[in-house]
Amino acid sequence: MGFQNPDQDAINEILQTKKRIAIVGLSNKPHRTSYQVSKYMQDNGYEIIPVNPTIEEAMGLKAYPSLKDVEGPIDIVNVFRRSEELPAVAEEVKGIDADVFWAQLGLLNEEVVDILEGTGMTIIMDRCIKVEHATM
To answer: Considering its fold, how many domains does the chain have in total?
Structure first.
């Protein structure tokens, strides 16, 4: 049947209650989509944690080389990586304390569902967190 995102009410509930977001692939360049989306979420009260091994900081925040380097639980892992890289990110997510795996608009890989099966984690793919927040 294929992957299905949670319904709109469930997505809205996530955005209303989950406030700590690790952004995998966050760029330190303000013109990049990952930066703009993250800045919007930060401006709307979310704690942003940059995760990118190629930068030291983004948006004035310390960047972590991987999810396992982030201290404490993560509410949402928001991924800005190519669809073919999502399974590797999902494998990393399995080893941390996170509630939601969220792949940005245009990103979808059904392997993620198999990898995260049994974790209790909510999976959202091919949806923009900024758009979903703005339309709540």
So the answer is: 1
Residue-wise over 20-49: b if at least 16 C-beta within 10 A, else e? bbbbbbbbbeeeeebbebbbebbeeebebb
Evaluate whether residue 67 is within a structural domain. Answer: yes
58 burial (CB, 10 Å; 0-12 / 13-18 / 19+) is buried
Q: Please report, as a single letter, which amino acid is at residue 41.
A: M
Could you read off the pLDDT of 86-128 as tens digits, one per residue?
999 999 999 999 999 999 999 999 999 999 999 999 999 999 9
CATH number at residue 60: 3.40.50.720
pTM value is 0.96
Stated length of the chain: 136
